[in-house]
Amino acid sequence: MRRRTHRWRSAAAWRFSGPTRGGLAALLAAALVPLQPARAAEAPEVAQACLSCHGDALAEGAPPIAGHSNNYIQLQLVFFRAGRRKNEIMQGVAEGLSDNDIRALGKYFASLPVPDTKPPADTQPDLTKAGEAAAGRHRCAACHGDAYLGVQAAPRVARLPEAYLAKALGDYRSNARPSSGGAAMTEVAGALSNDDIKALAHYLAVMP
Ligand code: HEC
Ligand code: HEC
């Protein structure tokens, strides 16, 4: 417990390399700044270690990270490092990253194109319909965009692996994962049933 508190403090002291200062609040505000068009960034050496799980082939449970916004990637790494977003593998990875590593990784992965993934064949169209209805009720597109490709602090969620999506929604609901954007996802996920989560994950995963 002591260790965790200490780590959370050190993460709160972590600052963006931009003009804003003052820890996590500034970090969260920075996440709402409109995105710059992606520019190719040089791969930092530390990025090699990520590709075995987040490269062209994904390790089990690992989502694609290429093409997410710089701010989103940096935030998630800070959350993992602080133990606020719980995942044994990524907490272990992030523990070894410096602030400079995190900046370079955010910049690099954000500069890569979004993977051109074909959605898997939809073998459960009824579940897709249920997911679409749940997305309408909970106004998911209002933040993630009509095509679910992400808007500002809200990341792309279309065509992510179904199991990852379901886990992510469950993690927000159980507070195993914090949310940026004024706790947006913690509030949204709190209102979701297990059936909603199952249907939403399917709907987003098979999105054409
Ligand atoms: C051994 C496999 C493995 C390695 C190596 C690894 N990751 Fe991960 N990563 C995962 C898994 C599994 C998750 C999903 C965690 C969860 O469910 O919350 C993840 C999640 C993430 C996320 C959150 C993505 C999202 O959509 O919210 C980011 C960002 C990330 N990793 C970045 C990195 C970076 C940068 C590196 C290299 C420094 C790296 N990872 C190395 C397995 C790995
Ligand atoms: C009020 C705005 C808002 C609404 C409404 C919203 N989201 Fe989000 N969503 C966000 C933000 C901001 C994040 C990034 C949070 C973070 O830092 O982890 C996010 C993250 C996510 C993620 C994590 C993606 C990843 O790569 O790990 C998923 C999945 C997701 N949202 C799905 C949904 C679904 C499904 C709905 C509707 C039930 C929804 N969202 C409604 C703002 C919103």
Automatic annotation (TrEMBL):
It comes from Methylobacterium nonmethylotrophicum. Residues 18-113, 126-208 form the Cytochrome c domain. Residues 1-40 form the signal peptide. PANTHER family: CBB3-TYPE CYTOCHROME C OXIDASE SUBUNIT FIXP, CYTOCHROME C4. Pfam families: Cytochrom_C. Heme c 1 binds at C50, C53, H54, M90. This is C-type cytochrome. GO terms for molecular function: electron transfer activity; heme binding; iron ion binding. One of its GO terms (cellular component) is periplasmic space. Keywords: Electron transport, Heme, Iron, Metal-binding, Periplasm, Signal, Transport. Gene3D superfamilies: Cytochrome c-like domain. Its main location: periplasm. It comes from the Bacteria. Heme c 2 binds at C140, C143, H144, M185. Binds 2 heme c groups covalently per subunit. It is found in: Periplasm.
